Amino acid sequence: MESFLFNRTQKVLFNGAYSESGEIFRGVPQGAKLGPLMFNLMVNDLSNLETNSQLIKYADDLIMILPLKIHPEKEMQNDVNQLRHDLGLLNNYYAKNDLKLNCAKSKALIVGKYNNSLLLEFLHSSGIEVCEEIKYLGFNIDKDLKLLSQIDSIAHHLNQGIAALRHMRDNTNMQSMLLFYHAHIQSHLMYSSFALLRCRSIDISRLQILQNAALKIIFDIPRSYHTIDLFIKYAVPKRIMSVIGCIYYSAILMVKRIVDCTDGSLPTINKSHSTRTSNVNLTSAKSKLLKHDVVNSGCALYNQIPLKLKLPSCNINDFRAELKLFILQNTNSLLKPNQFSVRNFTL
């Protein structure tokens, strides 16, 4: 390890000429297999900071989630003080570890109708841009959590895939087009799809129409072919889930991971004491925001799957396979009109 990190030098190539060699005192070689592990070790204690915000790390990306309350005007300074305190802790941490906070790439998203001129002024003076929406790990999040921009993004990728399939159908076979479909269309439908539980049924229908168009090209059937027949006769035998099926699969799988989590890294869910059902207890939805909470909606779906899937003895790989089979078997029910509602969902 010492020989790998110490006494390293580098030189710069510019216009065909090399600079003199210079010694490197920090960092790891780019592309090294040890690089990600060593970076994680370096910032592992970041979560120990006593911040008012919840810190969420992924590689070198960091999200701070600070709950804001609607205060009387004279108390609005409290939110500013909490945020200033947290940013101060982060800056001190970065300084001690030879890191730097890039304010130019830092953005703030204020969710909901919260309005605090003092907070906006503080963010502006700190060089942090306040946005209507942000993109994090390829997922678009807007301040109203309607996810319309994420729907637009998925639809854009699906349209690109459909255009490619139209060019492919005269020059390749069905198997090759199915491989392309899973790589360039189904993958976009599956990525973080549990969050789409918040979306309106009209937005989900928009994605379903695009998925139908792609499948009709692959299976070479008329554009007027009925959606349910398309899935029952063609898609389900190829183990292709509908858009709603993908969302429900992802949401139920999320709840399974939370239920099985024992290290405290995921939100906690109250488990039912009834061994007959092995259900999870739902949080009482007292607000509009909580009624559309993804975890709460996922729990409602989880409670409707077969008991054998909810038993602790069912490992995650078996759970995935059995859950997908269960959803495929119920495709007909999922594609019924107005089915995209967790509270109307019954099997």
Describe the protein.
- This protein starts with a helix and ends in a 13-residue tail after the last helix.
- It is mainly alpha-helical and 347 residues long.
- The strands form five sheets. It has a two-stranded antiparallel ribbon.
- It is 46% helix and 10% strand.
- The protein has helices spanning 2-5, 35-42, 77-96, 117-125, 148-168, 174-190, 201-218, 227-235, 243-260, 288-291, 294-302, 307-310, 316-329, 331-334; strands spanning 8-10, 13-14, 17-18, 22-24, 54-58, 61-65, 107-109, 129-131, 133-136, 139-142.
- 18% of the residues are buried.
- The protein folds into three domains: 2-39, no CATH class; 67-131, no CATH class; 147-347, no CATH class.
Tags for this entry?
single chain; about 350 residues; mainly alpha; 3 domains; two-stranded antiparallel ribbon; globular; Reverse transcriptase domain-containing protein; RT_dom; DNA/RNA_pol_sf
Question: Could you give a short description of this structure?
Answer:
The protein has 3 domains: 2-39, no CATH class; 67-131, no CATH class; 147-347, no CATH class. Helix content is 46%, strand content 10%.
